[in-house]
Each structure stands twice: as structure tokens, then as C-alpha cells.
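Ligand: flavin mononucleotide. Inputs:
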Amino acid sequence: MPDLSPVHRDFFAGGAGDERTLRANEAAFDRIRVVPRVLRATGDRDLRITLFGTEVAAPVLVAPTAFHRLAHPDGEVATARGTAAAGSLMVVSMAATAPVEDIAATDCPLWFQLYPQPDAAFTASVVGRAEAAGVRALVVTVDSPVFAHRPRDVRNGFLDLPAGMVCENLRDGTGRVRSIAMDDRLGWDVVDRLRAITGLPIVLKGILHPADAELAVEHGVSGLIVSNHGGRQLDGAIATIDALPAVVKAVGGRLPVLLDGGVRRGVDVLVALALGATAVLVGRPVVWALAAGGAAGVRDALDGLMVGLDAALALAGARTPAELTADLVAAA
Ligand SMILES: Cc1cc2nc3c(=O)[nH]c(=O)nc-3n(C[C@H](O)[C@H](O)[C@H](O)COP(=O)(O)O)c2cc1C
Ligand SMILES: O=C(O)C(=O)c1ccccc1
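Predicted complex:
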């Protein structure tokens, strides 16, 4: 298999600005330690959780990331096969390089990530297509009113997909592929407009402020993802694991709160769950696994996180994700 080109590797690895938030996500996990309980007779752990009616093997999901065919010739179809083999769920990026119908044909449970477009009719057609393909939730990314400055991509002159690769889910009625527009005029009414065009659960991705979590609940969304886009949007944004407690408090159990950014090992999952997350998503680790080993690589990477979580649960004295509580973590 050809190696990832340095330009594409930088696209996947990089972040906005000076990459402080990118580094902060992992560094923040490194400043938290577990305070384990002992003699809890956990026996066999049960990692399964159910989100909007879909059961997954463990609370470790695949975050939406763009352009998987840059990492592997089978692109998002291979990612979905690997995700299904691990018993997990994949959020398909709106910038996927495979048609959502082909990804769905793997039988992997899918959610679809959306950047609401200024053209409301086009947005509705994209959502309708994903819904018809069988996706089970709509993940609306709200942290991207503009596309951030990413120095690595600028330096590398990375602007476009290579010939023959397109965002397959952005074809309009004529078959022309539209480009994704970021929309700095989006307000909370977009949630109400999406609610009117789809019956799918709506999950907002990119919440960091507790006041926005409260607004999201008021607008009737079904879930939240605490995310800073893996440090690719606002450089200087708070690390996600540091933002989580206030968001969880504001939500007060009314909705599931998920988290992504910097989750690299089973203990990171345990810490996020202890601080109130229902599940986590992983972005770059899945891309690297896809590039290195295709579907089997993705399966192994997710399995590795799940095995690590299982061991961490046993060692911290918990049998299920629901048993994880904030008293199990402390500052390093
Ligand atoms: C290469 C790459 C592409 C991404 N593309 C999208 C995208 O199309 N839509 C989106 O909502 N988030 C996108 N994200 C953000 C991820 O969904 C997620 O928030 C982030 O990767 C989590 O951090 P992690 O990579 O540290 O696990 C992208 C992230 C990366 C690394
Ligand atoms: O790179 C990203 O983070 C991202 O979200 C994106 C969105 C649209 C096209 C390409 C990438």
C-alpha cells in the first residue's frame, strides 16, 4: 500500500493556528488521574451502551473526518467495514469521498454529519439522501462558521482533492458536485429548520460553553458532542475534557453528552465517562488505522480502545460505563 503523502498526512494531523488546542486536548487528559476503587468483584464487564435505539459494543464511536480515500483506496467504505466489525458506529462526514449509500451497504450503523448550507433546498436534499440511505441520526457541526487558517495546509498548498476524488454526497440534482460552504450567518433557528425537514435525532457537534448546552436543550436537540473539532477550528479553544464538566452540569441528564478530541487510550475513555460523557468519538486514530491497515486496521484500533477500556474499568472497580462517577478522577 502506498504511504500517506506528507501533504495528506499534514492535512489529517494538523490543526488551526499554532496548534495549541490540538495539543491541549491530549495534554488535558494527561493532567487527570484515576482514583480507583478495589475489591469490587466486577467479574465480566459489560461495555455496551444504547444511543437513540442503537446498541454499540462500547462507548467508543468513530468521529466524522473528511476525505478517507486520501488515506486508503476504499475510503469510507473500508472505515465502515472496520467499524462494524468492532461493533461500533460511524459518523459519516459530509466531506466523505464515498457515496453514503455505499457506506450504508456495509451494514455499519451510521450517523451523518452536516454543515448546514446557505442553500436550504440543497441542505434538505443532502439530508433526505442520507436519511434514505438509512442513517440513524444527524450530527450538525456548529463550530465552523468559517473555515479556520491551517498553516500546514497553506504551507503545503493543499487546496483540493486529487483528480477522480470528490465529496460524493454533495452532488446536486444535475450531478454537479458542489463545494462545502461554511456559513457565518447560522443562528439557533437552523435547529428548528432542520427539525422541520427530518425526523432523525439531531446531535449538535462542537459545543464547549454551558450556556450553549442549555440553549441546545431548549431547542429540542437529542444530544451534544463536546468538541473543538480536534483543534482544527478555534486555536485557543479550551480542551474538550476541561470543558466537559460544565456542559454536563448544564445539561443535567436531559440528553446524552458525547465528547471528542484527544482520546487515545482506554483510560481516556474511562475519564471522559467518569466526568459525565455517555460516549466518546475518535478522529485521527481511525484515520491512521485506515491508512495503515484498511478495514482490519480500523477494527483493530477500535478493538484496542475497547480492550483498554475494559481493563481500565476492571482496574478502577467498575463493571459498566454507568458505574463510572466523578469521584474516580482527580487532578494529576
Ligand atoms: C482530518 C480531519 C477531518 C475532519 N473532518 C471533519 C468533518 O468533515 N466534519 C466534522 O464535523 N468534523 C471533522 N473533523 C473533526 C472530528 O470530527 C473530531 O472532532 C476530531 O477529529 C476529534 O479529535 P481527535 O482527532 O483528536 O480524535 C475532522 C478532523 C480531522 C482530523
Ligand atoms: O478538515 C476538517 O476539519 C473539516 O471539517 C473539513 C470540512 C470540509 C472539507 C474538508 C475538511
